Amino acid sequence: MRPWSAVAAASQTQTPSAEEPAPPRPWQPIIVDVPGPQFEARPPGLDASHPPDTECDGWSTTALTLRFASVRGANHRYYRRPRQDSARAAAHEPTGTIVFAVADGVSSATRSECGALEACEIAVQAMLNLLAETSGPIDFQNVAYSCADRLFELAQWQLDVNDPTSAEVANLYGTTLVAGTVRPDPKGPVVDVFRIGDSSAWIFDGAAASYHPLFSSKTGADIEVVSNEVTPLPYVPDPLDQLVTARLSAEQTLLVGTDGFGDPLGDGDGLVGALFSRHLTAPPSAIWLAHVLDFSRETFDDDRTLLAVWPRARS
After folding, report:
1. Which of 44, 72, 160, 203 has the fewest CB atoms in 10 Å of its CB?
2. Where are the domains of the chain?
């Protein structure tokens, strides 16, 4: 039994007074199959840089609609650890392109929440800068190196050394990264996305209620042994070996998520896939997406982040 299970069990034995019935509590976690333990989240440690428990955002351009949410997992809520996931997005108004980044700080890194946040912010700004400089394809190799360079800068300051090794940087700020763009096109929005590490992306087909992974999966039905080994930033493959281009039809949605979402989703044909199929066919509010993402299911207690982009014609 997990340590917080006893806390949840004790709280469930307390019944309200018969004379004063407790009012219903709104927006309780959505339960999928067997729920995880319910308890009041503990605050993370004393560090002003820690991200909030939950964050979300949502807006539309002329052609596209974006939503994202990131929630702290039950494990981190119980053990007073900060949320190690992060997401950022912005619109390049001259082209109508959405640029985005999703990151999952490596659990073994001591400041991975900072690494994830910095990687997202640097990636988004680098893509905006490149879009402003050229009308051609974005140099995603350049974007990845910009993120790695920033992590090296942080490590120099944190360790008070001039030339930290890649291993030292990874031990402090190691993080996965999925970043890219969605640009409007008369034939359907074009997605360009790359990843470093094991976070992932999917094309969700609302009409078929199916999920098509854009990168190889670690949890698919054809995977016999699940590996938790991750090669994160600041390590950057040269050339990038996981770079994908896809086009969205009118009924399709780009999904980008950390493994806190991807692991329970699996192939998308189970209960978690059905849950999100119901709520992603059309853009929900950003706050509602965060609520759905914070579903309760036993054994799945990691931080979860999900970013989604829809063609605007459907919103």
Report:
1. 160
2. 49-314
Give, for 130, the enclosing helix (H) or strand (E): helix 112-133
What distance lies between CA 289 and its chain's CA centroid? 12
Comparing CA positions, the residue from 286, 295, 304, 258 lying closest to residue 66 is 286
Of 147, 114, 124, 308, give the one whose Cα is nearest residue 236: 147
For 94-136, what is each residue's pLDDT tens digit? Answer: 999 999 999 999 999 999 999 999 999 999 999 999 999 988 8
Candidates 171, 221, 222, 218; CA nearest to 198 is 218
What tokens appear for 84 in the block? Answer: 């190690």
pTM metric for this prediction:
0.89
Q: Considering only the top CATH level, what class is 49-314? A: alpha beta
Among 139, 125, 176, 171, smallest CA distance to 152 is for 171
Three-class DSSP category at 242 = coil
CA–CA distance, 114 with 104 (Å, rounded to integer):
10
CA 211, CA 191: separation in Å to the nearest integer? 16
